[in-house]
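Need Retrovirus-related Pol polyprotein LINE-1's 3D structure for a figure. Predict it.
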Amino acid sequence: MKIITWNVRGLNGHGKRSVLKNSLLHYAADIYVLVETKVKAHRAKKIRASLFPDYDLLANYDSCTNGRIWVLWKPSSLKVHKIEESPQSLHVLVDQGNAKCFIISAIYNSNLAMERLDTWNALQRLASSISIPWLVTGDFNQVRFIEEKVGGSKIPPSLLKPLNDCIDFCSLQDLKSVGNSLSWCNQSVGKKRILARLDRALVNEEWISEFPSSLLHYGPSLISDHAMMQISTVDDIPKEPKPFKFHAMCVSHPDFIKVVSEAWHSHSKGSPLFTFCLKLKSVKAALRKWNLAGFGDIYANINSSRKKLLDFQGQLQHAPLNEDLISKEKAARMEYSQAIHAENMMARQKAKQFWLSQGDSNTKFFHAAIKSRRMLNSIRKCKNEQGDLIEDLSQVKSHTLLYFQNLLNQDRLMNHPGQIEISKTLNADEQLSLSRGFSVEEIKQVVMDSPKLKSPGPDGFTAEFFQSCWDIVGKDLCEAVQHFFITGRLLKQVGATFITLIPKDACADSLDLFRPISLCNFIYKVISKLLAGRMHRVLEKLISPHQMAFIKGRKIQDSIFLANDLVKNIHSKSRGNLSVLKADLRKAFDSIHRPFIYFMMQKMGFPMVFIDWIRTCLEVAKFSILFNGSPLGFFGSSSGIRQGDPLSPYLFVIAMEGFSAMMEDIRSNGKIKVPSSNGVSISHILFADDLIIFMKDHIGTVREIANVLKQFSTLSGLHLNCNKSKVYIGAKISQRRAIHDILGVKDSSLPVCYLGLSLFSKSLKANHCQFLVDKIRKRISSWKTRLLSKAGRLELIRSILSSYSIYWSTAFALPCSIIHAIEALLSKFFWSGNEADRSFHMVAWKSICKPKVEGGLGIRSIAEWNKACILAQLWDLLQKRPSLWTDWVYASYLPRTSIWLKKKRSYDSWIWKHILDCRDTLKQHIHYVVGDGTSFSFFYDPWLPSGQSIFDLSGDLIRHNLGLPHDILIGHLLQDRCWSLPPPRTMEMVNIWPIIYSIPIQNYSDSICWKHNNGVWNVRNAWEVTRKTRPKVAWCSLVWAHPTIPRYSITLWQAALGKLTTGDNLQKRG
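Structure prediction for Retrovirus-related Pol polyprotein LINE-1:
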């Protein structure tokens, strides 16, 4: 079935109708939904006859004389009945005859927010009575999220809420779409041009179940200012063979181990690697055969076992003491439970919902998630390089295969990179540690530590298979892995790899909007993880501090802090002399030259045997594209590294060190001007392929950096994506045009998204964080949460939703309004499953955000966790954790002063100010231990037993009386690790000197210690001691005792608090 929805902007003009007739009938749709027709009732019949002679018409003339909404259909194949109408909506029931009926709600909303509320209320009222497929489509005259509008004024978050509330209440979701989803344009040019997603198609779960291949195509706008929407429900994806995949449900079957053992021991000839692959192939065949015999049709098994159980239970009604029937009923009950468990495990694995606790299984939820994933991840149409939409599925497949063959086989010629000089290399001991073999214990540890149910490669086996069958397969697996490290050779089948395409957003319509993730065979992943583990140990030494990804001890927050601190004055007309290039590297992992990686490894001193192991792992790869779940093609590659391969992050970091070396070379030779302070210079920061370059106001600097980028792209294959890269130019800089011309990128303005957070120059505002709230709302909307109990929703909050706010909390002190907005979302989600349902919130969210022993549900308060995370930033600085951020802070903010004495300045960065604000809190929970005295300020650090500094007790009086410099350290007043203080000259000294002499001097370096948890610092411990604690409850162990089922525990928890939805409680709430 085809449905066309379009805001036509009037049907009265003869010329316009002529164009529309040619355009609309070209698509031969079964149903047309036209809005803003502007046709009065007395002219409707004539215009309908001229445009759609074979179609019948329903319109909302009873409530709107101008006929804002038309629904047309072919009476030969469909029957359409009006349900209700309003000036802004028309709801109809479509009868397909033998097929299932469905509802279409045609929308043409008002420009006024208050009037749009009538539509949302009507949809919510209608939703309560709908249990069949439902499509809501038309011109909503409103966007859902802030990123759905480009240009014009910013949208207040409050205007987004009513529509999102309605969508959540009705359990609707956006239909998968292709084309330009910014469906409306005001037709202006330049800065006045505005685009927005005003037109959309929403569907319910029943629609997805009935029409799983539904697709929305945003077409041309032609004579309107709105794009035409084409909705297709035809399942034109042919059923093709799917690759074998091991299902976790098999492990629980009593015959599983026997089947694997018999198949595994049936082959034993050949090299260890060949024998392993042959045995795995034998097991695959045996499991396929056994699955059909042992499990067969899972749903048929459930029905037959349920019928058998009911039969025996019915017989027991007449003969309750019959021992034979009791035994058979018990066996039937076990069989039925196993069938249900098998279905649940398979559905959980397919749905990729590994967060849900075993005690709150919900197969219906899993099946809904599976259908939703399949709809979003399917590819039926895509654009080619010229932007033309390919609609024929066979041509889409050919285009996909050719695209990735070209992407992964780029020109691998590399100029001799002699200009790259690496200052840090491996020593002989480190080289020896890298090149030694791997023990059985190391191999087994990698296997046992692997996630159980991650998507398998072409072999089809997950880690759970190898973990469950280790006693059978472990010896052969270890010998096969060790055989590779001895010979340096891998079989082609080991390097076989699936590429699964993950859309970056719901409207992905070209292949560059899909993320290609490699699914490798399990034995290859074991080899790769072993090599990656060894590389990880040495990279901290080799990689410059400018790179902060994948290196032990370095944090993503360092990049965020540093970038935000450096751009703090970019908008200042007096201080804004900095330009910032936010560089996007085009298809970085897929296009990098492998010879460049090998060259960099040689320059760093990696042993040749280790490099050869890496080379074999990369060159042996052969790819098949998982196109709608079925393998497509089988081809080799000459460039790129696999996203999803454990080795790839470390190899990429090694390659990018070449760029850091080139930047350091031109910086140290004075060719560029970059931010610097007291010997610390920052030309760039890197987090994987996220690159930011900092340039002072000097056109020569821009030219040098452009040259480095060009040289590096020639050597490495990593090219600047000029369309996505942006330059941010300081307000004081006059040569703006020259800068973006030299770099070849457009200029833009802050704030901008960086590493999932905001990069801003002033203070963090609520509107900077709005996309955090939107992200949580989107995630909630994507789940079939009404199918989950409160226990399931609680687990979602813990494992997924909380992670979004936690990530932001680690970097920024979140605005109170944002914290309240997130907590309101989470509270409504917990109690009702969506944001809009008005279910009673029987327990306040602040009470839920308490540990279980204090009567809560163990969810952490965002505000309290945020406070602990800001304390962690100060703690890291006090500990002088090695990082470029730490170096920058001590060079630019604390060159010769204590952090405890530092005052805030108006032009300091917002992040730095918030770190300073938490000093008094942290001071209460730490103590200074004096060692060699080389780290602590004698006058200004709080190293006295009272937790105070000498300055706290007497100001600068003692220092002035002694005539000592302000930056003197404790070590200057120690001799042979004993105190060597000058004679006291004032009463202040007389009072303080005995306190100092009583402090023991330790035989190690100075240290700052955490007062609690036996001195063990982490953010959780900081949260524990700084949060507001409440009395413990006596019933905690009763409610949460193992192995209670979570959903029952939630009910018990409410009962213990006296907060069940009983009549008296509801009466109290009115």
